[in-house]
């Protein structure tokens, strides 16, 4: 007569697995950085080029909806550029203004209104309706931002500043040409064009 063994239900202790899952979740939440909304969102033209923009020594000029926004990499370079622009346009900035400006993304206002944008929270800046950096012949502040940021970059990093143009795919050519003319006036003939990556068609 065969003896039947009783089958016991196998149980797995999931406590350790839950602990690990929660530790990983906590780690990713604490180390993640929230994506700051772009000051001027643009739909860049498509390209198959995969070259990356440099992480440092870079100024980005964003063109869209008839406006121009300016952004600059490097906190100390941003502070020094703001100082030089303040001297040029007789606008005084406090140390707190410089510190906040160093942490900002791109902006698109005349320098006379910049303090108001600096005082805003990051989420409010994108909703502020910034009119763009002036680039007209009578008030060409974009030219001065480029010029002074180049000086600041050489003073601090001892390197030539690189320029990137990020234009909206639907932007009219004269707006882009105006920015290119400003660059050419400063003998900047080499710059990066920012595009969106798309797959190659075979």
Can you characterise this structure?
The chain has a four-stranded mixed sheet, with helices on one face. It has helices spanning 15-31, 75-89, 95-103, 114-118, 122-125, 141-157, 173-185; strands at residues 46-47, 58-64, 67-72, 162-167, 192-193, 196-197. Helix 2 packs across helix 3 (95-103) and helix 2 (75-89) crosses helix 6. It is elongated, with a radius of gyration of 25 Å. 40% of the residues lie in helices and 12% in strands. The protein is built from seven helices and six strands. With 202 residues, the protein is of the alpha/beta class.
Report low-confidence residues grouped into runs of 5 or more: none
Strand order of the largest sheet: 3-2-4-5
SS class: alpha/beta
Number of strands: 6
Q: What is the count of helical runs?
A: 7
Shape: elongated
Descriptive labels:
single chain; 202 residues; alpha/beta; 6 strands; 40% helix
Secondary structure topology:
Blueprint: H1 15-31, E1 46-47, E2 58-64, E3 67-72, H2 75-89, H3 95-103, H4 114-118, H5 122-125, H6 141-157, E4 162-167, H7 173-185, E5 192-193, E6 196-197
Parallel strand pairs: 1-6, 2-4, 4-5
Antiparallel strand pairs: 2-3
Helix pairs in contact: 2-3, 2-6
């Amino acid at each position: 007569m065969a003896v039947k063994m009783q089958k016991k239900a196998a149980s797995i202790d999931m406590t350790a697995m839950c602990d690990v899952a929660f530790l990983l979740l906590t780690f990713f939440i604490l180390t993640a950085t929230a994506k700051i909304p772009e000051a001027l969102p643009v739909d860049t033209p498509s390209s198959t080029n995969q070259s990356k923009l440099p992480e440092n020594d870079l100024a980005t000029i964003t063109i869209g909806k008839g406006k121009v926004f300016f952004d600059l990499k490097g906190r100390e370079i941003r502070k020094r550029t703001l100082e030089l622009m303040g001297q040029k346009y007789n606008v005084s900035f406090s140390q707190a203004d410089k510190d906040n400006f160093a942490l900002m993304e791109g902006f698109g206002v005349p320098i006379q209104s910049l303090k108001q944008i600096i005082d805003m929270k990051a989420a409010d800046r994108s909703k502020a309706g910034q009119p763009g950096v002036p680039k007209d012949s009578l008030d060409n502040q974009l030219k001065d931002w480029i010029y002074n940021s180049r000086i600041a970059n050489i003073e601090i990093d001892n390197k030539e500043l690189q320029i990137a143009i990020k234009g909206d795919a639907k932007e009219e050519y004269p707006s882009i040409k105006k920015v290119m003319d400003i660059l050419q006036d400063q003998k900047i003939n080499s710059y990066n064009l920012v595009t969106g990556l798309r797959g190659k068609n075979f």
